[in-house]
Amino acid sequence: MAKVFIGMLAYNGERFIGEAIESLLAQSFPDFTLFISDDASTDGTQKICEKYAKKDPRVIYHRQQKNIGMFPNFKFVLDKAQGEYFMWASHDDIWEKDFIKVCVENMENKKVSAAMTVIANVDSYGRSVRELTEMTKLSGRPGIRHVSEYILQPEILGKGNLMYSLFKMDVIKKVWEIYPQRMEWGSDYIFSLALISHFSIFVDEKTLFKKRLGGHSSKGLTKDDRLDRVKRIVISDPRNHIFPFGRFSKYLNGHMEALQGTPYRPLVALLLFFRLPRSFLIYLKERNYKKFFNRTN
């Protein structure tokens, strides 16, 4: 049995999945199984995956008979997992060769339950457009200060990506039990909260994971990519990139669900309500606040 189990989600990924698989097979830490669950793709994904499965015994390819959806597919690969450590992988991301090695070493040396590195967002050509360096501030163990810093960190700075960390096997299964991901806004942020409020994590300052934009949560960000130009992302005020006002109730309820069994619920509710006015002002601005007040008067 391999030490690390990688559960890759694939759906119509023929453009990028070969590069994603190659980056995993090139890892300097070779003791892993790569289990690919193809959610009934209609493009050339199956052919590409079967080629790698024939070439490398570490690769296992499974094709769903019908499309089951993204989050059921997350759960499917997790249920298949065996070994000491687990990580999810998307079919369009890229991992530097030392990603798994560094994460395993940090988990074992620092005695933490999960490990991640700084992430670079890349465009459709694989070029870096920004680095999520603020993620290093998410290192820590469950506690009032750690949870508070997580809640107050703007969503745009990458904290939802902790779900792509390397986990101890029993830890990731427990986190999923606490908060099973679902098709709701902010599910990744809430899942990551369930992680940091119950277990320890370390985020290495090395940039070893490339998260490609243009996926489920950022579909429009790469439509204007050009080979002759790199369009860097600059966030002038991260505080203005916040949860949508109209989704606050579900967002709050999700946080309370993620915090079950902890003493942090009152604190987190207070901090979210502290952030709510900014969300409301952005809501008004986006909808032309003068028309909004004229309509309500």
What does the oligomeric state look like here? single chain
Name the overall outline.
Answer: globular
SSE ordering: EHEHEHEEHEEHEHHEHHH
Q: Provide the β-strand percentage band.
A: 15-25%
**Which class of secondary structure composition applies to the elements?**
alpha/beta
Give me the CATH superfamily: Spore Coat Polysaccharide Biosynthesis Protein SpsA, Chain A
Q: Taking Cα atoms only, what radius of gyration do you get, to the nearest Å?
A: 20 Å
The first-to-last residue Cα distance is: 67 Å
Query: Sheet with the most strands?
Result: 9 strands, mixed
Helical proportion, percent range: 25-40%
- The total of beta strands comes to 9
CATH architecture: Alpha-Beta Complex
- CATH uppermost class: Alpha Beta
Structure summarized in a few sentences:
The protein is built from ten helices and nine strands.
Question: Can you describe what's shown?
Answer:
This protein is of the alpha/beta class. It is built from ten helices and nine strands. Strands 1, 2, 3, 4, 5, 6, 7, 8 and 9 form a nine-stranded mixed β-sheet that branches. Helix 6 crosses helix 7 (187-198), helix 7 packs parallel to helix 8 and helix 8 (248-258) packs antiparallel against helix 9. The N and C termini lie far apart (67 Å).
Describe the secondary-structure layout.
Elements: E1 4-10, H1 17-25, E2 32-38, H2 45-55, E3 59-63, H3 70-80, E4 85-90, E5 94-95, H4 99-110, E6 114-122, E7 128-132, H5 144-152, E8 166-168, H6 169-178, H7 187-198, E9 201-212, H8 248-258, H9 265-286, H10 289-296
